[in-house]
Amino acid sequence: MSITDTDAIVIGGGLHGTSTAMHLALKGMRPIVIEKNSVGRHASGVNAGGVRQLLRDPAEIPLSMAAMDRWLDLESLLGRYAAMCEFVGHIGQVAVAETEADMRKLEARAAEIRALGWNHEELVDRQELRRLLPAVADHCIGGLVSRRDGQATPYLTSQAFRLRAIELGVRFVEGVRVTGLEHGTRWRVLTTDSIFTSEILINCGGAWAWQTASLVGETLPRGYFAATMMVTGRMPSFVDPVVIGTGRQLSFKQTSTGTVVIGGGILGIADLTKETADPVAERMRVSAETCSILFPIMRRATIVRAWAGLEARMPDQIPVIGPSQTAPNMWHAFGFSGHGFQLSTIVGSLLADLIVDGRSPLPLDAFRPSRFSEAISGVG
Amino acid sequence: MSNEHHDLAIVGAGPAGMAAAVTAAELGLDTVVLDEQQAPGGQIYRNIEALERGGHIEKLGDDYRRGAELAGALRASTATYCPGSVVWQTSPDGRIGLTGPDGARMVHARRILLATGAMERPVPIPGWTLPGVMGVGAAQTLFKASDIVPNVPVVIAGSGPLIYLVALQLARAGCTIAALLVTTPASRIASALKELPRALLAGRNLLKGVGWVQEVRRLGIPLANGVSGLRIDGKDRAEGISYEADGSRHRLAAGLVLLHEGVIPDNQLSLSTRCQQIWDAAQLCWRPATDEWGATSEERIAIAGDGAGILGALAAENLGRLAALDTAFRLDCIDQAERDRRARPERAALARHKRIRPLLDRLFQPAAESLLPTDPDTIICRCEEVTVAQMREAVHLGGEDPNRAKIFTRCGMGPCQGRMCGPTVASLIAHETGRTMAAVGTYRIRVPVRPIPLMTLAGLIGEEEGLPPGESTL
Ligand SMILES: Cc1cc2nc3c(=O)[nH]c(=O)nc-3n(C[C@H](O)[C@H](O)[C@H](O)COP(=O)(O)OP(=O)(O)OC[C@H]3O[C@@H](n4cnc5c(N)ncnc54)[C@H](O)[C@@H]3O)c2cc1C
Ligand SMILES: Cc1cc2nc3c(=O)[nH]c(=O)nc-3n(C[C@H](O)[C@H](O)[C@H](O)COP(=O)(O)OP(=O)(O)OC[C@H]3O[C@@H](n4cnc5c(N)ncnc54)[C@H](O)[C@@H]3O)c2cc1C
After folding, report:
1. Whole-model pTM above 0.90?
2. For labelling, which of A60, A248, B369, B448 has a CA lying 20 to 30 Å from the CA of A80?
3. What span, in angstroms and rounded, lies between the C-alpha atoms of A267 and A287?
C-alpha cells in the first residue's frame, strides 16, 4: 500500500476543513484534505446561505464580526474565485416581531448585547420594519435588524474555497474515508484508499466528527440533525433582507433569481450511516403556513424542491474549536450547530494561527473541546 | 385524525397499474390506485372510457379496446381508485404524499408499486424550445384527452413506432401531415434485420408496425428516411424545419413540429426514493434495477410497466400482475407455491412480448445528435435556459456529475427537476470527461417530485407516525 507523507492532514472537505487547509497553506504548509464524498457534498454545500450576525451566541460574536469583515472583502481571501460565491452583503437580516411578547424578547436581546459592548443589532419600529420589508404582513409590529448581514450561494462558495485552496497548494483526496488513526512520532492516517502520514491532524468532520474523535479515544457530543430547506419557483422580487421569525421558527430569503428559500428548524430524517437526510412533508407544513402568514404574497408561491442536510449540533449550540484532549497534535473544528456557514471565512484562519503560532488573535476559550467533560464531572 | 393506511398503494392507472390493482384486490389486499389523470387508462389508453362511450375507439385503432376492458375491471374491483391525484412523494418507509381533488394528504402503505410508465425522450435539437414545437406523444395526449387536432400543417420528425402511429391517428382525424422525417439511418435497418427471425415470433406486433408504414405511404404522407442535422427555425415560434438527406440540405415550412426519439422510463419517483438505477445500454436510458417480480433495492418499493424499462403496454399488464402476486405473497395473502403457479401464464406471455424488443431497440435507437447535442447554443434545460456551451464550461470548473453541474448552471433546478434535461446533461458530462454514463450517474431527485402550491402544503392532511425524530443528541 502506498504511503503519502505531508505536514498536515485535514479530515473533511466542508468549508471549515477547506478553509483551515487554505490558511495552513498560506502559512507555508502543504496540507492534504481527505473527504469521504466530495467537497461541499454535506452541510457546506446544501445550507441556506445565510451570512448572519444577528442573534448569535455572545461567545460567537467576536468571530462573527471578523468573519463578516472578510465576507465583505472576499477578494483578499479568495482572489479570482471571490465572485463565484455570489455573495451580497448589507442587505440586512431581520427578526420580525408579530406580538408584544416577541417585541419584548427582541428588546431584551438588544439590551443584553449592548451591555456586552456590541451595537450591530438594532431595534426597529413598525415604520422602519415596513421600509425594510414592504411585503411584510400588517400585523407585524417591529423587529431587530443587523444591517451588514447578507447571503451567498453555499455550493458555489464551497467550490470557490476549494479552487482557491488548490491554487495555494492544498491537495484534495475525494471519495476516500478515514477509518483509523495511529500516533507514533507522527500521525498515521488509515483510509479506504491508502495511508497518509503527517505531523498535524485536524478533524473537520461535521456531523461525523465525533466518530473521528472516538478513533483516538476521545468522547465528544454526538449530536446531529437533518435541517430541511424548501425552495419556490421564481417570484417577483419582494424582499431583500433575510428574514427570521421570533415567536415562530422560520428563516426566509429571496435569491437573485427570484426563488424563495425557506428553512429554519424544519427537521428531516437523519441517517448518519447511510449519510442521507430526507425532508418530511408532515414537518414542512408548518413552515409553509408560517411563510404565508408573515408574507401574504407567499400564498401564490409554489414549492418546487425540498432537501435536507446533516449538521452537527452541540448541546450548547456553539462549535468545538481547539486541541484534542487525548491526542497530541490533533485539533478539532466542528459542531457549528446550524450556523457555521457565516463563520467559514474566519474559523480556519484562527485555527491555523493556533496550530502554527500557538495562539489565536480572537478568544476561542468558549469553544474548547474539554468543556463537555468539565460539565459532566462537575468541574473537579 | 388518524392516518390513511393501505396494504398496497399503486401509483399510475395505466395497463401495469390497472392489471396490478385488479389482481391485488382479488387476492384480498386493501389496494389504493393513485393517478393524476381524471380517468383510468395511462398513456396508451388515455381517456378510454369516454372514447368507448362515444363509440370513438376506432379513431385510435382496434387495439385500444383492451384498455376499456382493463378500466372496466379496475372499476369493478374492490381497489380504491383515486383519480386526479398527483403523487409528489414516495418514501422508502411507505409514506406517499399526494395532491388530490380535496387537497394534499399523506397515505401510508405496506408496499408501494410504482407504475408511472414512460415519458418521451427529450430531443434537444436547435430550436426545440420554440413555441410551435412539441413531442409527438404530447400531441397525441391532446388528441386523446381533448380531441384537439392541429389545424396547421404538421411536420413529424424523429424515430420510433409512435411517429408512424401518431401520423396515422392525426391524418385520420383530418390533420395535414406535411412530412414525416425519419432519423433512422439506412445502415441501421440492415443491422436490425439480424434480429428479425426472433422478432417474427412476436407475430402480430411486428405485422402491425409494418402495416403502419404501408398505410403512411398509402395515405400519401411525404416520407423521408435517414435524415440528419435537424434544425428548427423561427423568430418567436417555429416557422420551418431544415435537415440533411441524400447529401443536401432541405427546408420545409411548418406551423407545428412534432419531435420524438422514443420513450424512456419515467423514473423520477424511483430516483427520489433512492431505488438503485442501472444504465440500460440497449435502450440508452436509466431504469430502476428490478428483479423478476418488480422488486427494487428498496424493501417496500416495487415497479412495474414501462417505468421499469420499455416493454410496451401488453407486457406492462403481465408485469403489473407479477408485482401484485409478489406483494400478496410478501404480505401473507398467498403462499409461495400459489404465487409461482399464478405467475406462470404471465411469464409465458411476457416472454412472447419481449421477443420483438431487440429489433425495436436496434431499429429505433435514438439519433446520435439528439442524445449528444453539439451546437453550443442549443438549450438543454428549458426551465432555466442553460445551453450546451454553459454546461461544458461547468464540467470544466468541476461539475463532473449531474448534481454538481446542476449547482454551477441551475440546470435541472427548475419546476421539472431535470426530467427534461437529465439524460442530456449526463451524456454531455460523459462526453466531456471521457467516462461512461454509468460512471457519471443521475440527478438526485428531491421531493416534491411535482411542484406543490405553498398553500396546498400548508393544508396537508396526515400526522407524523413512527418517524425518527430527525435529530439525535446522544
Ligand atoms: C440545511 C442547512 C441550512 C443551514 N443554513 C445555514 C445558514 O443559513 N447560515 C449559516 O451560517 N449556517 C447554516 N447552516 C450550517 C452550515 O452549513 C454548517 O455549519 C457548515 O457548513 C459546517 O461546515 P463543516 O465543514 O463543519 O461541515 P460539513 O460541510 O458537513 O463537512 C464535513 C465533511 O467531513 C467529511 N467527513 C466526515 N467524516 C469523514 C471521514 N471519516 N473521512 C473523510 N471525510 C469525512 C464529510 O463527508 C463532510 O463533507 C445550515 C446547515 C444546514 C444543514
Ligand atoms: C406520451 C406517450 C404516448 C404513448 N402512446 C402510446 C400509444 O398510443 N400506443 C402504444 O402502444 N404505446 C404508447 N406509449 C407507450 C406506452 O406508454 C406504454 O407502452 C404503456 O402505456 C405503458 O403502460 P404503463 O402502465 O407502464 O404506464 P402508463 O400507461 O404510462 O401509465 C402511467 C400512469 O401513471 C400516471 N402517473 C405518472 N406519474 C404520476 C404521478 N407522479 N402521480 C400520479 N400519477 C402519475 C400517469 O398519469 C399514467 O396514467 C406512449 C407513451 C407516451 C410517453
Report:
1. yes
2. A60
3. 11
Q: Are residues A197 and A257 in the same domain?
A: no
pLDDT over 50 at B58, yes or no:
yes
The mean pLDDT of B291-320, rounded to a whole number, is: 97
pLDDT at residue A380 tops 50: no
Minimal-distance CA residue to ligand 2 atom 7: B44
Q: Which of A312, A329, A349 is the last residue of a domain?
A: A312
Residue A277 belongs to a domain with what CATH number? 3.30.9.10
At CB < 8 Å, which residues of chain B contact A? 89, 91, 97, 104, 106, 274, 397-398, 404, 407-408, 410, 413-415, 417, 446-448, 451-455, 457-460, 462-464, 467-474
Same domain, yes or no: A285 and A165: no
Total domains present in chain A: 2
Tally of CB atoms within 10 A around A317: 15
Any domain includes A75: no
Q: What domain range includes position A267?
A: 93-147+224-312
* Residues in chain A within 8 Å Cβ distance of B398: 159, 162-163
| Cβ–Cβ gap A226/B462 under 8 Å | no
pLDDT of residue B474: 60
Ligand 1 atom closest to A341 (CA): 11
Whether residue A111 sits in one domain with residue A257: yes
Distance from CA of B461 to the nearest CA of A (A): 8
In a domain, A82, yes or no: no
Torsion of CA B271, B275, B277, B283, to 10 degrees: -80
Specify the pairing of strand A224-232 against strand B263-265: unpaired
Residues of B with Cβ-Cβ distance to A175 under 8 angstroms: none
| Non-local CB neighbours of B378 within 8 Å, separated by 6+ positions | B124, B125, B126, B128, B387, B388
